[in-house]
Amino acid sequence: TDFSAFADCDLVVEAVAENLELKRRVFAELDAVTPPHALLASNTSSLAITDMAAATKRPAQVLGLHFMQPVPVMPLLEMVRTFLTSEETSQTAKAFGESLGKTIVVSKDSPGFIVNLLLIPYLLHAIDALEKGVATKADFDTAIKLGLNHPMGPFTLLDYIGLDTTLFIADAVFSETKDIRFAAPPLLRRMVSAGYLGRKSGRGFYDYTSQ
Fold first, then answer.
1. DSSP assignment of 151-182
2. Which percentage of the chain shows pLDDT scores above 70?
3. In this structure, are strands 39-42 and 103-108 parallel, antiparallel, or unpaired?
4. Is the peptide bond before 186 cis (omega within 30 degrees of 0)?
5. Active site residues
């Protein structure tokens, strides 16, 4: 809560709530207190890194470092470069990620980056198909696990990610791109409105209250 604590950091990874104005304020504060050489990174899963970089006086030293959750288990780190990010910044951040034992993939600063660009339409399509009665959620999950060898099906994954988080990412990308693949199904909005957010709220597509 005290930004002066970052005064001697070489790299800061921001992970505040997915609100662009909040992130811009954080980046402006970090820009003011961190050393001139320090790199500033965001863990955002969907918001534009360039918009955060614009809140600083060091845009060449700003990038995205999107850690997959759960971070201690998942080996992937999505590194996001803007057209302003310097090569030195990218190489330093890549070395940092590798020092944590992560595998690095690089994306340009494009809505959804790599993972959510592909994942979110898949999840939204599953919800839409469920709402249309194509199959039960359990059968969808079993089909994806055994038919595609995924570790979990779409509805188990949605509950793990959080339905509110999924809706936020979908809306953020749709707002920027108007790509119909990111248009959230009505069922998702109704569930979020009802507080059915997944594991964190005890209920989502499945009931976790007895666990």
1. SS-HHHHHHHH-HHHHHHHHHHHHHHH--GGG
2. 100
3. unpaired
4. no
5. 78
